[in-house]
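Moderator note: this is an archived Q&A kept for reference. The question asked for a predicted structure of one protein chain; the sequence and the answer are reproduced below.
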Amino acid sequence: MDLERKFARFGDGLSVSKDAVIEGYASLFGQVDQGRDVVQKGAYSASLDGLVRVGQRVKMLWQHDPAQPIGVWDEVHEDDRGLWVKGRLLESTQKGREAAELIRAGAMDGLSIGYRTKRAVKNDKGHRVLTELELWEVSLVTFPMLSSARVAAKGATLDAEMTLRSIAEVFNDARQELARP
């Protein structure tokens, strides 16, 4: 199978801490994205366990380009909401400096996961439910797909805007359903 990608939005007002730390959700469980996929809780666990066993990490890339690593993810784990990531942009690299500045300016607003689907099922709404994924990388990207998953600066709170984005996504999904012939 080929490498697939899922995008997540940082959120408005993102800033980078002085030490270029970013953190937040790269993926949220149970939410339908624009590709009509839903990631199920536990979908990343086997992949993350496998990386730990062999002493590797999920890569932090610029726009999914394997030739352009821009930082390191120090923490990647599942919780009840989704896939949480926390890492450092390496401002000693050109792309790392650029990414930090683009985030500070509000021009960069997305994360995207690169993965391979290992198991998935269709649900009664026609969505592909992703039950097991092999996570390869989490990239900083320009255009996000899943607007309710996001990254924030170190110490920022996500709850209020997360709720508003979730509500907006429900209305968007309902509008798309009503527009179907």
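Archived answer notes: The chain is about 25% helix and 40% strand.
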